[in-house]
Amino acid sequence: MSERTTTLVTTIPQLREQRDALSGSVATVMTMGALHDGHLALVARARELADHVILTDFVNPLQFGPHEDFDAYPRDLDADLAAVDGLVDLIFAPAVEEMYPVLPPTVSVTAGPAGTVLEGAQRPGHFDGVLTVVTKLLQLTRPDVSVFGRKDAQQLALVQRLVADLHLPVRIEPVDIQREPSGLARSSRNVYLSEDGKQEALALSRTVTAARAAAPSASAIRAVLADALDRAEVTWDYAAAVDPATLREITDAHRGEVLIMVAARVEGTRLLDAAVAEATAP
After folding, report:
1. Catalytic residue among 36, 39, 67, 126
2. Nearest by Cα to 29 from 6, 8, 52
3. pLDDT digits (tens, 9 = 90+) for 91-107
4. Residue 107 and residue 105: Cα distance in Å, rounded?
5. Does residue 52 have an active-site annotation?
6. Is 3.40.50.620 the CATH classification of the domain at 7-175?
7. What residue spans of 50-152 are helical by DSSP H?
8. Under CATH, what is the fold of the domain 188-277?
9. Residue 120 DSSP SS3
10. What are the residue ranges spanned by the domains of the chain?
11. 8-state DSSP, 104
């Protein structure tokens, strides 16, 4: 595919004008900036799937709790522009006031009960904020396909549910987790870790790898995760194997797809990892 011209837009009218000018299929990649190789893998997949790519670069305040790192979250629009220059058609990087003239918004989207477990239990209201901004961005960019990474596994599951339940005319395309050579899942928050912290954080990838290797036994998957929690190599928030349709923890009798999700704190930084397995045996 030939290199394309990348245009930065910061307002909704600009985005609508530029979006209307695109002919052919469109893919979106939704980010909060601080772009890394994981994001670039999403861009690469989007380029394979559509004629045009729109990248959104917006740190969404609705998905941050009162004691989380909204103000400290890394922001470098110039670096983001350089990272994807020529790879995407449009970058939409609005101010908070552009996306939310009233904050909190009068009308928003709720994730329901599935948004209150696991990540949702640790971060109340987080997924309501995620689904609200995703809905807004899907309406504004009007893509044929939107690309999401598997690392934020609960987010992906809820976005897929959002699209199905609201009959939104878009296909959600999952992309496998991108990892550093050590196995650590790539994340914008990795910049907060020291070299020792990065080594400590490998407990997450080791755990999801071991749990996935325990398939097809549902009971063995559960045992691997329970053992990781007992060993407490990191400060675990959870290590769970859930049914992707309900996000409820599986039993030993579970058959079918299993979503393995872990979250932990390392040097005060909260990290996620995930894997998908298939259970066909007790």
Report:
1. 39
2. 52
3. 999 999 999 999 999 99
4. 5
5. no
6. yes
7. 77-84, 96-99, 119-122, 126-141
8. Pantoate--beta-alanine Ligase; Chain: A,domain 2 (3.30.1300)
9. helix
10. 7-175, 188-277
11. S
